[in-house]
Amino acid sequence: MHIFLTGEIQVGKTTIIRSFFSQCGLSADGFITYWEPAHGEDRMLYLSPYSTDVQSVEKHFVTRYFEHKLSRTKNIEHVFDIHGTELLKNSGKKSVIVMDELGFMESKAKIFQNAVMQHISGVIPIVGVIKPAQTEFLNAIRSHSNVKVCEVTVDNRDSVLAWLLKQNWR
Fold it and tell me: Which residue in 81, 120, 78 sits closest to 99, CA to CA?
């Protein structure tokens, strides 16, 4: 079984995953996307191997958020197709694969999408985050028979963590 958390921005989905791995005793590989501040209101989006210490891993720049819009200073699809696919190729060596997060930016990254779907069709458990957006790729993940999607809200996030910890991950 693969479990994907979904919900509004900043509701605590990634925090739940980090808390889960700090308590469950399982090891994980996979990927994480995350924002870091740049200058002023700018933020930079990165794609990196999953680690409990984001600062110590190799970062792949994805895009820049500037003045309330995405600036396509790099070919987003290329980053996912090359670096994201490589991260997934090297995943599955530990107990659980982390995919944090899947969203609309991967819509044209067909090589990356294929790598994600191969893992979803596989037996190594996945815990991830999926944006609530409606795209062909995200809908294919949600509708896959191996996937359970759990919505996270401010009111249920503590119980979602407890529920994750009770799942059979082996």
Answer: 120
Give how far Cα 95 sits from Cα of 18, 30, 119, Å.
Answer: 15, 11, 13
What is the average pLDDT across 79-106?
93
Q: Domain ranges for the chain, please list them.
A: 2-166
Residue 47, pLDDT score: 86
3-state helix, strand, coil in the chain (%, to 5): 35, 30, 35
Q: Cβ–Cβ contacts within 10 Å for residue 10, how many?
A: 9
Tell me, what DSSP letter sits at residue 5? E
Q: At what angle do helices 157-166 and 13-24 cross, to 10 degrees?
A: 40
Provide CATH code, domain 2-166: 3.40.50.300
pTM assigned to the model: 0.88
Buried b or exposed e, range 105-133, using 16+ CB within 10 angstroms: bbbebeebbebbeebbeeeebbbbbbbee
- Residues near 131 by Cβ (< 8 Å), separated by ≥ 6? 6, 101, 102, 103, 104, 138
Give me the percent of the chain exceeding a pLDDT of 70. 85
